[in-house]
Amino acid sequence: MNYSKEITAKMVEAYQQVPTRETVSKLAVELGKSEKSVIGKLSKEGVYIRSVYTTKTGEKPVTKQELVEELAEKLEIDAKDLKGLEKAPKTTLKILLEGICKE
Length: 103
Fold this sequence. Notes:
- The protein is mostly helical.
- It has helices at 5-17, 21-31, 35-44, 64-75, 90-102.
- 57% of the residues lie in helices and 0% in strands.
- The longest helix has 13 residues, at 5-17.
């Protein structure tokens, strides 16, 4: 899937003006290319900005295992000693972590 210099320049300009996934979709339709192809070309040109996933609350996602490891670090024990704790609700793990950090 080749892109001419002119098409590439127009793609880059359009994307830089409005760097959203909607712009990628519009470009794909206009050019008769797949979205993956357009993203690939924009990435190669160094202008594509990957969207960052966030939770419903706007936070960076954290796994239960990461929370358990952080708890273990704060308690200065091996995370293996907290085996099974990763099955607890995430909110419970966050509350525990907050409680430990207050000390």
